[in-house]
Amino acid sequence: xxxxxxxxxxxxxxxxxxxxxxxxxxxxxxxxxxxxxxxxxxxxxxxxxxxxxxxxxxxxxxxxxxxxxxxxxxxxxxxxxxxxxxxxxxxxxxxxxxxxxxxxxxxxxxxxxxxxxxxxxxxxxxxxxxxxxxxxxxxxxxxxxxxxxxxxxxxxxxxxxxxxxxxxxxxxxxxxxxxxxxxxxxxxxxxxxxxxxxxxxxxxxxxxxxxxxxxxxxxxxxxxxxxxxxxxxxxxxxxxxxxxxxxxxxxxxxxxxxxxxxxxxxxxxxxxxxxxxxxxxxxxxxxxxxxxxxxxxxxxxxxxxxxxxxxxxxxxxxxxxxxxxxxxxxxxxxxxxxxxxxxxxxxxxxxxxxxxxxxxxxxxxxxxxxxxxxxxxxxxxxxxxxxxxxxxxxxxxxxxxxxxxx
Length: 406
Ligand SMILES: *Cc1c(COP(=O)(O)O)cnc(C)c1O
Prior knowledge:
This protein is of the alpha/beta class. The protein folds into two domains: 13-47 and 307-405, Aspartate Aminotransferase, domain 1 (Alpha-Beta Complex); 54-304, Type I PLP-dependent aspartate aminotransferase-like (Major domain) (Aspartate Aminotransferase, domain 2). The chain contains twelve helices and 15 strands. The strands form four sheets. The protein has a seven-stranded mixed β-sheet with strand order 2-8-7-6-5-3-4, sandwiched between helices. It has a four-stranded antiparallel β-sheet with strand order 11-12-15-14. A two-stranded parallel ribbon has the order 1-13. Helix 2 (50-63) packs antiparallel against helix 9 (293-302), helix 3 packs parallel to helix 9 (293-302) and helix 4 crosses helix 5 (133-141). It is globular. The termini are far apart. The site of pyridoxal-5'-phosphate has 14 residues, from helix 4 and helix 7.
């Protein structure tokens, strides 16, 4: 008789976004005349850049002609795109990455979820709290997380609390705690919008090298950085020996629907003499047949001079929304974090409301929808996330409604 992967039965239901949807539809059913502004979404809303659209059209035309038709591509990505990533994305940071260290994929969610495949099944894992839920749930599915506790934590995961006290930057574990083998870091951060500077990131790289740990660095929001902060972990000395980096075109160029990302596994990254680069190449070429030709041509267009100019305009649009939210709430005297180098604003709920109490109040009294911080982990309780991905008009209107309410 077939047996299921028991780890799946241990997963708590992913109630966050369905709970939100339920409460919003109950509200709209009761108040069909009231307008709702959604600042909870983690998805972009602006259309793709014109350069990307024309590259897509051209690639479609090529597929229509036997002389230029392309079938299966290289599983790890076309050279035309890997070269652009090396030259433009890493070149302008002064970071040297070889094309065979770049693995093109359908996005950072799959890669951050799949990377655990090449490590021991009982590897120990550390994540931030609050956290992007993908890191935790994929480890739970693989049996690395242990059992789910009523506290909202898994008993085999080491949680690194990110709080107002530590500026939402995880602290290096004490030397008395066994060092986790795999460490997930994401900066600029989802959900807190916090960033890490080169000195603090150097501490993490040094810690990982000292202990033989591997850092998984999710840089999905690097294009939102406005201050002098590392865009890539490879700007940090020693990172090539201990870190894998994940990047995505989703928030950078609006590819959430198109699907494209890439992961870097440097050749120096070895465990017991075995190169993780070869293992990931083996894993990807066995289980993945590559991102589509169309999307890779679209990705190439992002790196053209015109493409860069166009995506920067859209990023600036979202950054301006983030500024409107941040400044609007700060002017009310609220404790507000993020929003400067990230499309996320993380706020301390006023009047010590719980995350869900604040959610209900905002929905019922202002018709504004956000995301309860507790949905990202126990340390998110008492916090709330607003996103900058809405329209400028709605963003300004939402802040005005919040101001009127409080
Ligand atoms: C949106 C997001 C990504 C991007 O995922 P894709 O699969 O590339 O769309 C990755 N990491 C975090 C933390 C995100 O919020």
